[in-house]
Amino acid sequence: MNHVYYTQVQGQMGILGIKKCDFVLCTELDIFIVEVPFDPCFWERCRKKLIDFYENLVLPEILFPRVKFGLDPFRYEFAL
């Protein structure tokens, strides 16, 4: 499926552990329903990127705020 909501749908399915869902698009003229199967390979790539984004950009900004002080955000690299 090549749709702007594909990543969001796969992410929600991955987080909730759902194997398939119906994507429903409603317009004034019709209702369109597509069954979307869960893609574990796609989700694993997204999951890794989400973890990296949260751990290296969001969490550090929460712990060591820069943006609210008008400073440029930057990437932290934590050694685990």
TrEMBL record:
Gene3D superfamilies given in the database record: 3.90.320.10
Annotated InterPro entries: NF-kappa-B_Signaling_Reg, PDDEXK-like_dom_sf, Restrct_endonuc-II-like
BP GO annotations: DNA repair
PANTHER family, sorted: EXONUCLEASE, PHAGE-TYPE/RECB, C-TERMINAL DOMAIN-CONTAINING PROTEIN (PTHR46609), YQAJ VIRAL RECOMBINASE DOMAIN-CONTAINING PROTEIN (PTHR46609:SF8)
Name recorded for this polypeptide: Uncharacterized protein
Organism listed in the record: Dreissena polymorpha
Record lineage: Eukaryota, Metazoa, Spiralia, Lophotrochozoa, Mollusca
